[in-house]
Amino acid sequence: EIDAGSDVLAVDADSAGLIIHDIAQKKGIFTIGWVKDQYNIAPGSVLTSAIQRLNVIFLEGVNIAIQGRWEGKSYRFGILEGALDIAPFRGSLSTEQEQQIINIKNEIIIGNRLIDTEK
Questions:
Q1: 68 belongs to a structural domain
Q2: Domain count for the chain
Q3: Alpha carbon 68 to its chain's center
Q4: Burial level of 37, CB count in 10 A (0-12/13-18/19+)?
Q5: Cα dist. 78→66, 81, 88 in Å?
Q6: pLDDT tens, 64-81?
Q7: Is residue 100 in some structural domain?
Q8: Cβ contact 82:54 at 8 Å
């Protein structure tokens, strides 16, 4: 995708993708990290990161089990539960763009915007 002219790459590989951030930065391509805030890997090139908080996911599962509600099914935890979040943008977006993303996140939290998780 780098040679295909991409402007932004989503690097969904945690530490396995660290080299991609470095290569993209050298080629002037922005990236989006995954699992934790990866800005420090390529400052100015990493626009943001999707933060995955495993501690929240595990705690949610434990609480469901303690309450006797555990069932043999898949559970999904996201922004609403605090299991997923977005790292700071650090000036990589305009104020308007950043506010639009914050608004969408807030709509998800209050239930006004649904994410199709079946795809």
A1: yes
A2: 1
A3: 31
A4: middle
A5: 20, 6, 17
A6: 999 999 999 999 899 989
A7: yes
A8: no
